[in-house]
Amino acid sequence: MSKIKKESEAAKALTDFRSFRAGLDYKTARIEHLEQQIRSIGDQRLEELLRTPGYEGDRMADKIARLVDLKKELEADIAEERRRYAEIKAIADGMKHADERAIIQLRYLDGAKWPAVSAALYGRRDDFGEKADYYLRQTFRKHGTALQSFANAAEEAAP
């Protein structure tokens, strides 16, 4: 397998993981929204429910059923996220260079934004404040080598 193909597959796997985690956040927000809707239906006065027999109860039952299904999906997704996290962490732990390993861990496992990754790598330098943009570019360059190292470590870890 070519070096570029390995690197692009590693980048895709890591990016897919970040996207998957974002999906968990969206699903959690949907659950919270449904729970709020169910509470608001339940808070309506009894008189209002009696005016339209069956309608509000059916709406609540429908929302509760969707909520239960969504919570089951979320539970399965969390298990999948933990599996993927452990797999990526194990590969990253096998990387030889600490700075490259830190980039993978901060960006993909911890969800850090690029300025935070750059600050973690270079923030202790005396000139970091005035050269933050330079160090951010250095972080992007180092990210490329980190992806190569991640791909190599993944290949070495594969049975």
Describe this structure in words.
The protein has six helices and no strands. The protein has 159 residues and is mainly alpha-helical. The protein has one domain (3-157). Helix 5 packs across helix 6 (132-157). It is elongated. The model has no long low-confidence stretch (mean pLDDT 88).
How is this fold's topology laid out?
Blueprint: H1 3-42, H2 46-51, H3 55-93, H4 98-109, H5 114-122, H6 132-157
Helix pairs in contact: 1-3, 1-6, 3-4, 4-5, 4-6, 5-6
Mean model confidence by pLDDT: 88
The whole-angstrom Rg is: 23 Å
Query: Structural class from helices and strands?
Result: mainly alpha
Q: Number of DSSP helices?
A: 6
What proportion strand?
Answer: under 5%
Uncertain ranges: none
SSE sequence, one letter per element: HHHHHH
Helix content: over 70%
Q: What is the number of domains?
A: 1
Per DSSP E runs of 2 or more residues, the count of β-strands stands at 0
Largest sheet: none
Shape: elongated
Report the span from N to C terminus: 16 Å
In short:
The chain contains 6 helices and no strands. The protein has 159 residues and is mainly α.
Structure keywords:
6 helices, elongated, 159 residues, mainly alpha, 0% strand
